[in-house]
Amino acid sequence: xxxxxxxxxxxxxxxxITAGPTFEPIDPVRGITNxxxxxxxxxxxxxxxxxxxxxxxxxxxxxxxxxxxxxxxxVMTAQQMFDTVLPQAGQHDVFVATAAVADWRPxxxxxxxxxxxxxxxxxxxxxxxxxxxxxxxASLAQPPYCVGFAAESEQLLAHARAKLLxxxxxxxxxxxxPATFGRDDNSLLLVDAHxxxxxxxxxxxxxxxxxxRALMTELAQRLAA
Length: 225
Ligand code: CTP
Ligand code: CA
Prior knowledge:
GO terms for molecular function: FMN binding; metal ion binding; phosphopantothenate--cysteine ligase activity; phosphopantothenoylcysteine decarboxylase activity. By secondary structure, the chain is of the alpha/beta class.
């Protein structure tokens, strides 16, 4: 019922959202990944749909139900997420990058399971850098309004603002971990080129759906401005 009565502040807007971790395989049974429950991204997808937006959610491997009315595309690797997002980013008004994308992947994928037997030493793996999805979307000729996320373990404001400049995006949402990672409650810091502001405003914690709804109100105001 609460969902039904949300003001339709994003009616007519198209939002593209990435969520969850990516998984970068080493062999058929192993891989490297990031900690991410996907909860924040899924809450944003739900809040955006409630606010009347058309929502596309590109999700890494997570165990979460698809929010009502949301078009969901599942991917595994950062490269797959990139290949899914880039061709359709230009058809969206907003891109919200909540995904915890693996920065590196194994340089080569072993076709068969790597066996211990006969190895004198533990294997080493060469890594190669994954494409930066958010930076690539932000550098399109006519980019959607780009919102980044920055999960940091220290110096939140400085790191968030550096990322804002490096990726050339108008807004980044910071949060400090690891205490809050995977939890239902969180405390955010909205950072743009000129200002920063905690959400909730008093710096306390709120559940991710409440934060997502507040973020959609904020986004609607910025799009209208
Ligand atoms: N991001 C992305 N593609 C990547 C890496 C990051 O789209 N390959 C996005 C994330 O979804 C997030 C933002 O960029 O919205 C910041 O991600 P983060 O990992 O904090 O930034 P990095 O530039 O990778 O810096 P670092 O991991 O070194 O802190
Ligand atoms: Ca990263």
